[in-house]
Amino acid sequence: GNKNGGGSVTRTMRTISLDPQAGRMSLSERAAGPTPGMGEMAVSVLACGVTPVDLKAVKMFNTASFTSVGYEVAGIVEDIGPHVTRFSKGDKILALLPLDSRESGYGDACIVSELGAVLIPPTLDPKICVAAMRAGLQAYTALHYQARLTAGDSILILDGCTESRQVIIQLARLWGAKVIVSVSSPIAAQHLEKEPAVSTLIDLSIRGTSLMQSCLEATDGLGVDIVLDSGTLCKPGDNVGGVSKHDIITCLAAGGKWISQVPDLQLDPPDSRLLNYKGASLCFLNENVWTMSGSQQGRYLTILNDLIEKLSEGMILPTVSKTVGLSDLVGECKARGPCLVGKIVLDPSL
After folding, report:
1. What count of Cα atoms within 13 Å lies in the side-chain half-sphere of residue 261?
2. Under a CB-based contact definition with an 8 Å cutoff, are residues 159 and 183 in contact?
3. How far is Cα 122 from Cα 305, in angstroms, rounded to an integer?
4. How crowded is residue 167: how many other Cβ atoms within 10 Å of its Cβ?
5. Least confident interval from 60-64, 88-92, 209-213
6. Integer Cα distance of 318 and 163 in angstroms
């Protein structure tokens, strides 16, 4: 972008907003950039992670007729509001915007709370940071805080290639887990065959492949200690490559933990009974909780800083599947499901 010496942004600002009722995103322009309030920073966006919009969640947290979209933001601090102490103009930062954010990350500039941001080292590519951010938060939340992963545990990660779930695979391996990954397409399988962190790859698009059988073989008949689903489940016998609730519970070891991203999950009595017999537990993973409640602020910043450190040292490497400009994002939300391999990243300068 054309910025004059790190001062205010000169050109008109473009931003994308969402009409939750129609499920459409539209691009608008305004003359001036956003003004930061108390404890806030105005940030010119270098990169923003493109994530499928959860319309139900947006409607729950944001009642405006047009709401913000795009939450995983990396950018440069252009202006700071009163009482901002941790950052100064020109700093490169990474932040996850809350669901009720008044500014979209999909835009030339946005407002970021000082409390939710961390510094990015000058040498680190902002696109890599935003590509790893959501999956990184999910990994720390699910494996570290919810499943209490310890070295030697086995974990089954479903749909290991969609979005940036490769980051979850790499982190699980770093923390000493035996990583079993399922994929539902030959393209995803091909991509993960080169991933050294995967100890067992299960391609469910191959007819006759049984998830349970493969998991039992990989764990000497004991089952897996942790299952992380991808937020979509099918009904038994639905389609090739799909995984049902029953499949997941059958794969769990005694005392196992199922970490679910399915918001409207319903368990039938036989499934509950099977969970009970195994002494297994079920947790819901929602990484947005870190930004919706300030009670765990210290932990949240520790996670982001640790993630940045691991990215800097090359310990984790997300896949950026493609980079798009603002005009590419306008239109139907439904047209954009999860990306099969890697993460799509917005670069407003394109």
Report:
1. 20
2. yes
3. 14
4. 26
5. 60-64
6. 9
Cα 141 to Cα 160, 173, 249, 286, distances in angstroms? 17, 15, 21, 8
Only one residue has tokens 């950018």, namely: 75
| E strands in the chain | 13-19, 24-30, 40-50, 67-68, 72-80, 92-96, 109-113, 117-119, 154-157, 178-183, 200-203, 224-228, 252-260, 281-284, 320-324, 331-332, 343-346
d(CA 314, CA 294): 30
How far apart, in Å, are the Cα atoms of 329 and each of 46, 75, 105?
16, 19, 12
- Tens digit of each residue's pLDDT (9 = 90 or more) over 126-182: 999 999 999 999 999 999 999 999 999 999 999 998 888 999 999 999 999 999 999
Structure tokens at 48: 């923003």
The 8-class DSSP code of residue 144 comes to I
* Residue 288, phi then psi, degrees to nearest 5: -70, -15
- 297-312 and 126-139 helices cross at what angle (nearest 10)? 130
Sheet containing 281-284: give its strands across: 200-203, 178-183, 154-157, 224-228, 252-260, 281-284
Query: Residue 87's Cα: distance from chain center in Å?
Result: 25
